[in-house]
Write a structure and sequence with these properties.
The complex is a heterodimer of chains A (193) and B (247). Chain A has ten helices and five strands. Chain A has 193 residues and is an alpha+beta fold. In chain A, a hairpin with a 7-residue loop joins strand 4 and strand 5. The radius of gyration of chain A is 23 Å and the shape is globular. Chain B is mostly helical. Among the domains of chain B are: 104 residues, no CATH class; 64 residues, Structural maintenance of chromosome 1. Chain E (Arc Repressor Mutant, subunit A, Orthogonal Bundle). In chain B, strands 1-3-2 form a three-stranded antiparallel beta sheet. In chain B, strand 2 and strand 3 form a beta hairpin. In chain B, helix 2 packs across helix 3 and helix 3 runs antiparallel to helix 4. The N terminus of chain B is likely disordered. The chains are: A alpha+beta (193), B mainly alpha (247). Chains A and B meet through strand 1, strand 2, helix 5, helix 6 and helix 8 of A and helix 2, helix 3, helix 4 and helix 5 of B.
Chain lengths: 193, 247
């Protein structure tokens, strides 16, 4: 490994959060962004091909050294590490709405989920998974929420673009086709009633 | 309203246990009912589903949940709308179920994303980052152990520390124009002219200043003295009116 790759390894080892390429570049005054990226790639290969139990992952816009999934069960059993607590279904649904509609207000979240969202929003805010990103134009200037980098870290995502796109989902909303379906359905209604 | 006979989904099937919190709201319950009946979302038999929905919220003891009642109301309105007669060639007729179908599909999509996110979080939880303990959250102090007397003293201290409300006090301070007039006349009786500061008297209050000013203006109006200012912002000079002798 090059000295820069070693330096980066040391920095990632000491950091409590993912570090961005730009942050890592500041380690060496003479290193360019390209140098830093190349060193990161070298570090990744070093971990991947030299039989290491850790790997370099890209998460929340930065880089992080994590243990490989193969060791998770043993680590947890021995209680050396604690898994992230699971999110409730309500929390996941709310996060899903916010992730796709941000910035989004409470009213829209409640409309989509059909239930009140105050408690869940508070919990998600306490866990720093969402934050207030502004105020809407509607009456009362409602708070608008967006996801945070902690949200990306929780899901192990580089950025929001890694979330599945609407057309990748089995149920995609196609407003046009939906309206045609509706008319077909309407034609068959009298049979039901 | 007549309820439809119990369906396989609710009640009739042995061992079918519904927990109160088994559903994430009315849309979730509705999707559950549709799945059990294997009904296409785009062609919901509203009358049947509305009845089942009402049965379900009764059986689940969800009567108190406003979210469910709101949806029940919506379904009943839809049911009524669907029962209205209409001509088969009615072009302008819009299926009243449209909005419900759109919401159900939208909610299903959110459910699918939520499931994807849950799997992603699962995978990520298998990757342990470097052991790092975040600083413990600041918890409130444990309950105090104290006796009644200490508590009473504490309460008294708190009460004592509350500042009494500061109300604006209005004190009647009438202007003493007569007094000022007498003072000025006395001064002018001794000397030909006096200065503004002399007219004010020692340590004047705002009332004294105003009283003196009014007295001066009144005396000048009556022609008993002359007010002069040699230059802009120069001290005012108060002089006995030369044409008349002082009283």
């Amino acid at each position: 490994m090059t000295p820069l790759a070693q330096l980066i390894e040391a920095a990632l080892f000491s950091a409590a959060r993912p570090l961005t390429v730009e942050e890592l570049q500041t380690l060496d005054a003479e290193a360019t962004l390209a140098d830093t990226r190349a060193a990161l790639e070298q570090l990744r290969e070093h971990y991947d091909f030299d039989g290491h139990s850790v790997e370099l992952v890209e998460v929340a816009g930065g880089y992080q050294i994590v243990t490989r999934a193969a060791f998770a069960a043993a680590i947890e059993r021995a209680q050396f590490g604690v898994r992230q607590p699971k999110l409730t279904a309500a929390a996941l649904e709310t996060l899903a709405v916010i992730a796709y509609r941000q910035p989004v207000g409470r009213a829209e979240i409640e409309e989509i989920r059909g239930v009140s969202a105050g408690g869940v929003l508070r919990t998600l805010q306490e866990r720093s998974l969402i934050e207030v990103v502004g105020r809407g134009e509607a009456i009362g200037r409602p708070l608008l929420y967006g996801t945070t980098s902690s949200f990306l870290e929780l899901l192990g995502l580089r950025d929001l673009a890694e979330l599945p796109r609407a057309e990748e989902l089995t149920i995609a909303l196609h407003p046009h086709r939906l309206s045609t379906d509706g008319e077909d359905a309407a034609a068959s209604v009298p049979a039901e009633s | 309203m007549t309820l439809s006979p119990p369906t396989a989904a609710l009640g009739a099937e042995p061992g079918f246990i519904v927990q109160l919190d088994a559903f994430n709201g009315p849309l979730d319950l509705l999707l559950h009912l549709l799945r059990e009946e294997q009904i296409e979302i785009s062609d919901i038999p509203i009358a049947r589903i509305a009845d089942q929905f009402l049965r379900a919220i009764h059986q689940l003891g969800l009567n108190q949940a406003a979210d469910y009642l709101e949806m029940a109301g919506r379904l009943l309105r839809l049911k009524a709308q669907m029962l209205l007669p209409r001509r088969s060639d009615d072009e302008g007729w819009e299926d009243p179920r449209h909005e419900l179908v759109r919401r159900l599909l939208e909610y299903q999509q959110i459910r699918e994303i939520a499931a994807w996110m849950e799997r992603a979080a699962e995978r990520r939880a298998d990757q342990f980052p470097r052991g790092y303990l975040p600083p413990p959250p600041s918890l409130p102090e444990p309950p105090l152990t104290l006796d009644l007397l200490q508590l009473i003293r504490a309460v008294e201290e708190v009460i004592a520390a509350i500042p009494s409300p500061v109300l604006h006090r209005v004190v009647a301070r009438p202007l003493n124009v007569e007094g000022a007039t007498l003072r000025i006349e006395a001064l002018l009786a001794e000397r030909e002219q006096i200065s503004w500061l002399e007219a004010l008297g020692p340590r004047p209050t705002i009332t004294d200043v105003l009283s003196t000013l009014l007295a001066l203006l009144e005396l000048a109006r009556r022609g008993l003295l002359r007010l002069a200012q040699p230059a802009p912002f120069a001290p005012m000079v108060i002089a006995r009116d030369a044409t008349r002798p002082a009283d």
